[in-house]
Amino acid sequence: MDNDTLKFNENELLWGQLIMTNTLLQRARELELAGADMSLIQAMVLYALKISPEPMTPGKLAKILYREPHSMSALIGRMEKQGLVETKHDLVPKNLVRVVLTARGEEAFQRQRTANAVINLTSRLTKEERDTLSSCAGKLRVWAIELIRQMTPGPYD
Amino acid sequence: MDNDTLKFNENELLWGQLIMTNTLLQRARELELAGADMSLIQAMVLYALKISPEPMTPGKLAKILYREPHSMSALIGRMEKQGLVETKHDLVPKNLVRVVLTARGEEAFQRQRTANAVINLTSRLTKEERDTLSSCAGKLRVWAIELIRQMTPGPYD
Among the residues of chain A, which ranges form H helices? Predict the structure, then answer.
């Protein structure tokens, strides 16, 4: 192997660090949520349902959590079986499905909020570090959405 | 819904931002890699094989990429069928499998490196922002590993 001739540039090195950090944080959060009998994506759906000011459809959930519509539908189906969400057909047009939290889903949402050692890790950073992290994350989101739009004209417009 | 009484604390808000940023960056990178006929995890395996100074086994790959051993073995199997890697049985003990890049894997590695619009997004941040991002990421990795160790005594020691 020609490791000697392989030089990563600054962006590649930072990307590798970010990927690894995310992988580790996600793994830690998944282990923590497993203790609350939940997966990361399920927790994300509960959050989205909890904070949305407007009715949520599987399509909207797929869009805001950036998942494929078919995997979101399958996930909603599993969560409905577990009694965490209910689907209602009271929107106009009638073929739209409205996803709502059940009392059990509400309880699960509260339970995962108290399992928060991973989420609280950022409290060990300084206020200045947290502010920079938040502002960089905001910029990267805007730029990533730009690139996604360029690569998939349509779905994210 | 009692959205009025739902208040997220600073850590929860930052966590939400980081999760969303990662989801978007990963989705953008996946779209970019799809153009190079590759998935994100495949690209990560190629990187790991490329930069490792020592022989790589499926077990080591699973460990450094924080995947389950059985999914890593399945992934290696698929990549071998695609001609990107080869498995060799020349280590001691004999039951250890050594995973190596093929010429085609090498070519795929170089191809995904040139599809780098997503990886280059961080170049739009200031040098100071990149430094803070890198240092925060480093601290979060250390703390996440600590938590993972506490939650799974054994495998990550």
Answer: 10-35, 40-51, 58-64, 69-81, 103-114, 127-151
Considering only CB atoms, A129 lies closest to which of B124, B136, B145, namely B136
Distance, in Å, from the CA atom of B49 to the CA atom of B61, rounded to the nearest integer, reads: 8
Going residue by residue through chain B, which has 157 residues, state the pLDDT in tens, using 9 for 90 and above: 444 467 889 999 999 999 999 989 999 999 999 988 899 999 999 999 998 888 999 999 998 887 889 999 999 999 999 999 999 988 888 888 999 999 999 999 999 999 999 999 999 999 999 999 999 999 999 999 999 999 987 655 4
| Contact across the interface for A118 and B3, Cβ inside 8 Å | no
Residue A91, helix vs strand vs coil: coil
Extended beta strands in B34-142, E state: 85-88, 98-101
Distance from CA of A155 to the nearest CA of B (A): 13
Contacting residues of A for B47, CB less than 8 Å apart: 16
> ipTM score here?
0.84
Place of tokens 């349902």: A49
CA distances from A116 to A24, A123, B15, B147 (A): 15, 11, 10, 11
Q: Which residues contact A72 (CB under 8 A, 6 or more apart)?
A: A58, A59, A61, A62, A65
Distance of residue A93 Cα from the nearest chain B Cα, in angstroms? 23
